[in-house]
Every structure is written in C-alpha cells, then in structure tokens.
C-alpha cells in the first residue's frame, strides 16, 4: 500500500465540512442539553471562540491541516484547561455531547469506533478535579 492509498480520518469523515458539522453540533448540544449544564457552565458565555479553537484542533487531530498549531502553537490541552474545574461530571457531560454529535454527523459506525476511544482517553486526561 502506498501513502496515497492511506487516507486520514479527516478525509474519511468528509474533511472541513464534516469537522464543521461535528463541532457545531457539539456546541449546540452542550449549549442546550440540560444534562450538560455543568459542562456548559465552565465555558464562556459566548461560545464562538471556543468553537473556532475546537474546530481548528479537531481538524489537525483527525489528520487534516495543522491549523490549531499554526494559529496557537502546541495545544498543551491540559495546561490550557487547568483553570476550568473539570470533574467527573463535567468530563462525562462533555463526552455525552461529543458522542452524540459524532453519532449525528458521522454516519459510518466504523469511523466512530476509531475516533471515540482516544477522545474518551483525552477527556479523562483533561479531568483536574475529583
């Protein structure tokens, strides 16, 4: 198999448009689901900046252009999120929104099965409160 026969997750899910749909839906869910209220509360009142950064991050994370790194440098996610109190509830609410957004925007169950486990691991890593 040559390098061109291998595609990234970014390409497999549909590129920039798919990442845009995923991230937009994630923030819609977080902003409206009562069961995500604690997660929502640790975010700014206005979500457009968070949404843009998360879209940039997910683009690179899934194998697309490294736009987050180009704009903001190394992600240092845990350090950047340390001021936000992320306990088990906030983590689980974030995962609920991400999982639901992924299910709604990425129809291929096999792709979701590849994307979700490292996202779950990352969410647990971001927890900074008991």
UniProtKB/TrEMBL annotation:
Keywords: Heme, Iron, Metal-binding, Transport. Pfam families: Bac_globin. Gene3D superfamilies: Globins. GO terms for molecular function: heme binding; metal ion binding; oxygen binding; oxygen carrier activity. Belongs to the truncated hemoglobin family. Group II subfamily. This is Hemoglobin-like protein yjbI. It comes from Martelella mediterranea DSM 17316.
